[in-house]
Amino acid sequence: MKIHREGKKIIFLTLGVTAAIWIAMIFMVNHWTFFHYLFMCLLLLFDLAVTSFFRIPRRIFTDSGGELISPADGTIVAIEQVYEKNYMGCDCIQVSIFMSATDVHVNRYPCDGTVEYVKYRRGNYFVASYPKSSDLNERTEIGMRLPGGQKILMRQVAGVMARRIVCYAKENTTVKQNQELGFIKFGSRVDIFLPLDFPINVGLQDKVKNGISPIAEIV
């Protein structure tokens, strides 16, 4: 398991603060009680939790030119037909993946293709599982054209805890399936908009993993 580069500064900062508090307590507290030890244990647990947010576990990726692979870890919270106006310009199937605080937070491209559209949009920080968060929250949209000419759109959506979306996508670049797309700090939601004729391979409340779980067939 590796630690994502986006988390290294935050991890070092939290560890530094914990070490400073620990040293200060050693010199200032003459008699340690149960509550002092409990406080230090809670600090260490917090450090471990922050570190786990940025983990990248070892995985054997699914390599499939005929399928879209999940761009994120999490739970399928929406599968519905919507009109996507910004890039697709047509009715689509929206599949939404909610990333909890315990999920891996790295995002990956679901297929090979060319990035044609990247747009950051300011917004609110509602709970990411809320249906309207896809349109109301801070988000980044990434539009791709597949080798067969089909178009898909991915949307990284911020949530209550996630206050920073990191997106590495650049317009007019060719990308590969399971290549790293970005990172949403402290979890949130990823939406993917697909053509109506793409068969969906997941259901509501299914658990998916980035780079592993097929979510739709490419036709």
**Number of extended strands:** 15
Secondary structure class reads alpha+beta
Gross morphology: elongated
Compute the number of helices: 3
Number of domains: 2
User: What is the average per-residue confidence, as pLDDT, rounded to a whole number?
Assistant: 89
In a nutshell, what does this entry contain?
21% of the residues lie in helices and 35% in strands.
Topology record:
Elements (H helix, E strand, L loop, with lengths): L1 E2 L4 H21 L5 H20 L1 E2 L10 E3 L4 E11 L5 E9 L7 E3 L4 E9 L11 H4 L2 E7 L5 E7 L7 E3 L5 E3 L4 E5 L4 E6 L12 E2 L5 E4 L2
Antiparallel strand pairs: 1-2, 3-15, 4-5, 4-14, 5-13, 6-12, 7-8, 7-11, 8-9, 9-13, 10-12
What does this molecule look like?
- The protein has helices at 8-28, 34-53, 133-136; strands at residues 2-3, 55-56, 67-69, 74-84, 90-98, 106-108, 113-121, 139-145, 151-157, 165-167, 173-175, 180-184, 189-194, 207-208, 214-217.
- The protein folds into two domains: 2-56; 67-217, Glucose Permease (Domain IIA), CATH 2.70.70.10.
- The protein has 219 residues and is α+β, with helices and mostly antiparallel strands.
- The strands form four sheets. The protein has an eight-stranded antiparallel sheet.
- Helix 1 runs antiparallel to helix 2 (34-53).
- It starts with a strand and ends with a strand.
- Helix content is 21%, strand content 35%.
Defining traits:
three-stranded antiparallel sheet, 2 domains, 219 residues, elongated, alpha+beta, 15 strands, Glucose Permease (Domain IIA), 3 helices, 35% strand, eight-stranded antiparallel sheet, single chain
